Amino acid sequence: QVQLVESGGGLVQPGGSLRLSCTASGFAFGGYAMSWYRQAPGQERELVALIGTTGTIKSYADAVKGRFTISRDNAKNTVYLQMTSLKPEDTAMYLCSFYMTPNRRWGQGTQVTVSS
17, 77, 98, 100: most buried by Cβ count inside 10 Å? Predict the structure, then answer.
């Protein structure tokens, strides 16, 4: 079955860095665009970054442009989110996702907390 497993979250000080990973299984990973979303308590889930099937096309939310980098390794069925210059407002549950008809699929998420 389709499975997305995120890892790499944790507690980091403001200005620090983290790299999130999402390993996929159960589908043809290389044929799907992949996304990272985040959701903070009491807030709506928001799209953070998107990457096309080959990694050439990338898109970022304005709030993370210049600080976050999305990448993928199709040989490893894994998508990454490198996060730098982290701010307290980046604190959220980060979820890996892709769309497979008829609905969007989600991982369980990994918590990122930015605090001193």
Answer: 98
- Rounded Cα distance, 68 and 61, in Å: 9
pLDDT per residue over 11-64, tens digit each? 999 999 999 999 999 999 999 999 999 999 999 999 999 999 999 999 999 999
Q: What is the distance between the alpha carbons of residues 73 and 30, in angstroms, rounded to a whole number?
A: 9
80 burial (CB, 10 Å; 0-12 / 13-18 / 19+) is buried
What whole-number distance in Å separates Cα of residue 114 and Cα of residue 10? 8
Q: Which residues of 15-44 are buried (b: 16+ CB within 10 A; e: fewer)?
A: eeebebbbbbeebebeebbbbbbbeeeeee
CB 36 within 8 A of CB 97: yes
Which residues fall within 8 angstroms of residue 104, CB to CB, at 6 or more apart?
97, 98
